[in-house]
Amino acid sequence: xxxxxxxxxxxxxxxxxxxxxxxxxxxxxxxxxxxxxxxxxxxxxxxxxxxxxxxxxxxxxxxxxxxxxxxxxxxxxxxxxxxxxxxxxxxxxxxxxxxxxxxxxxxxxxxxxxxxxxxxxxxxxxxxxxxxxxxxxxxxxxxxxxxxxxxxxxxxxxxxxxxxxxxxxxxxxxxxxxxxxxxxxxxxxxxxxxxxxxxxxxxxxxxxxxxxxxxxxxxxxxxxxxxxxxxxxxxxxxxxxxxxxxxxxxxxxxxxxxxxxxxxxxxxxxxxxxxxxxxxxxxxxxxxxxxxxxxxxxxxxxxxxxxxxxxxxxxxxxxxxxxxxxxxxxxxxxxxxxxxxxxxxxxxxxxxxxxxxxxxxxxxxxxxxxxxxxxxxxxxxxxxxxxxxxxxxxxxxxxxxxxxxxxxxxxxxxxxxxxxxxxxxxxxxxxx
Length: 432
Prior knowledge:
It comes from Levilactobacillus bambusae. This protein has about 425 residues and is mainly alpha-helical. The chain is about 70% helix and about 0% strand.
């Protein structure tokens, strides 16, 4: 009887948390308060809560923060060396005679850059180049912004920074060949969907009126690398180098990111003078760390809440055993169909109310963590790609003055179809 009452109270607090998130509440504060509440409601002993919920999870998360820091630094170097900007500008060379092909090229370039780059700062730096290019080609605003954000979302399947955030729920899963095989395929599915989306709307693109969008709407400046030597074209492969080092040579992400960062600096001339190299490293490191400062504390609160959820596993396990299908295929398809519940930080968005869903499911051990991570990652990437609560999507809408409702109705159907397909692919990799 006591377990039933406690379970009901925990579920009630969970639904209140969902309402709080949907109303725009601060996620870091929300997760911390939930961690406290679930310790109190779940009758977790005080010393156990202090050590196992608020101390050990944060301390054990240190290695993941290192991955995020190196990933953020690499992304910042891509932008500040001009590599990302130079890759972006190549799309203009296709010309206005082939606007659909040029639009597809812009999306492929976007996905290439964000395989390693991450964060709203990087999105803004690239967006102020690529979005005006799309508008100048005659791509309507809703199609241009949707294609741009969906392309970013596609690369998140193999982006080490975002992967290490969801790994907080499933620490047993590693960013290695087994996951990356799925990640590249899932990314490919979303890229193909974006290309089909542009082809379906090709008549609107050809008939669209060109529009000039200011390059520096909010004071953000993007550096563009001027190619002076033929060998500098090698810089165009830098964004995918860390992932290739991991897949081919099985390198850990830290040395892969570090070597890629140093190669990027070398090929762009920042090692010609030691003082120049040190000054550049200091500046990019400071910017990179400041970019993720808020994210780090958010993740600290998240892992504390996840630990609190694990302490209450016994309260939820009978409920989940009763309501969840035993077939992993049925579960995967169901999550794909319900994937839009990740929108507005809903119960399938792991960086929203879905953190509770992920924490509880992870703690019950009903399914393999290798299966559960992609299962919940996919709807979360739908939200990253097409949700108006995602920071860089908000920026894109503001920058282009696109109505949020029109963005959702344009982008979500594409992302939804991708989510269903990728859930089936995830099942084929990890659900047996």
